[in-house]
Amino acid sequence: MIDKLEAALDSFDPRVRVDALERLIELAEAGRIELAPPAKSVNIHCHTFFSFNTYGYSPTKFAWLARRGGLAVAGIADFDVLDGLEEFHSACARLGLKGVVGIETRVFIPEFADKEINSPGEPGISYHMGVGMPSGQLTGEPAAFLRRLKETAQERNLASMARVNAYLSPVELDYEADVAPLTPAGNPTERHLCTAYARKARAMFPSDRDLAEYWRVKLGVEVEGLGLPEGGKLLNMIRQKTMKQGGAGYVQPDAGAFPTIEAMNRFLLDAGGIPTHTWLNGMSDGEREIERLLEVAMSTGAEAINVIPDRNYAPGVKDEKLTNLYAVVALAEKLDLPVVMGTEMNSPGQKFVDDFDSAELRPLAAIFLKGAHIVYGHSALQRAAAMGYTSAWAKGHFADRAAKNAFYVAVGERINAEPPADLNAEMTPDEILKQLEK
What we know:
- By secondary structure, this protein is α/β, with parallel strands linked by helices.
- It has helices spanning 2-8, 14-29, 59-69, 85-95, 140-168, 175-179, 190-204, 208-219, 232-242, 261-270, 290-299, 320-334, 365-385, 392-397, 401-414, 429-437, and strands at 42-46, 73-79, 99-108, 125-131, 274-278, 304-307, 339-341.
- The chain folds into three domains: 1-34, no CATH class; 35-107 and 310-437, no CATH class; 149-242, no CATH class.
- The chain is 46% helix and 9% strand.
- Strands 1-2-3-4-5-6-7 form a seven-stranded mixed sheet.
- Helix 13 crosses helix 15 and helix 15 packs parallel to helix 16.
- The mean pLDDT is 96.
């Protein structure tokens, strides 16, 4: 029964998800499901099925698994949408879980127009985030900007699909019939397209031998070991060979293909979030100039940095990627930039949470926990009374980022799932901390 209820948390019907969560909470309260006490591990960068989660997790499912697994702070971050925000905050409140919500997209950085940053083969283009977003119910220009992000992403998908259809013919997709049903809210990604192509090919080539021969010819690789008909390695290969640089569906983006980092950060600040520069592994020309890159990002409003440790170390191996990870975290500490981290879970094999006890991550664990508490403290106060990390209230009370960090860490540690109702913007930081001690 528990397995069935947990599976129901991923239903596209929100009523089914709510009902399943309530029944799981009842079982936990009856002692039939053990919920681990919060420890020191965090993951505040998990994608959900509102963009793409390789395991199909809804915001509610991730919240439940995070609470069951004892995460200290949990967070979702979907591409180009905030569709899961209210659901995630609601689930976290029911579970007594510290939860935050982010958004991820790609931006253009004019100062690095001639350098690859963290989007392979695309000079000037960088993945970028906002974290601690307080609400998805936006109005005015922020609402219009968010709508444009989603619409532009879908226009790119449609154009890419038309080119890939021509290449993969006779396997051709109909967007409304084959792709849109894979999502709960009309926000398919490239990864959904890959899944749809794999399923359409299976339907057209029911013979395993014919299917293997089709993909061998179309992808130009031997398919043994790719996990036909829709294994993760096959999906990644479809994406690499048809939608990434050099593929039939790929078009090199120009400066106008994505919002500038300045425009994106303006949106994030107006919407009450923390603009966050994302770092990949320090291996590109742009990331080898990380100090200048962060200087540019911070000049446009970035106030945190995101890292994905799981991509940058192998247990027992000390290599350049691990060295770069340590170096960028040290730089963030020097600049008093909160470090946001997580495992994404938008590609097969990615972990639910990093191993904070591993020899490689143990030296960074306290920094990651501190960053998560800062983002949670921001989110809680921004939602309560517009007193978040980037608010006018914060600007009026903190002379430097170090003092601001210390305050929001303390807030994040003291508030559980919901802030007290009696906090208000007339209070000083000391008054807030004293109130949270009660």
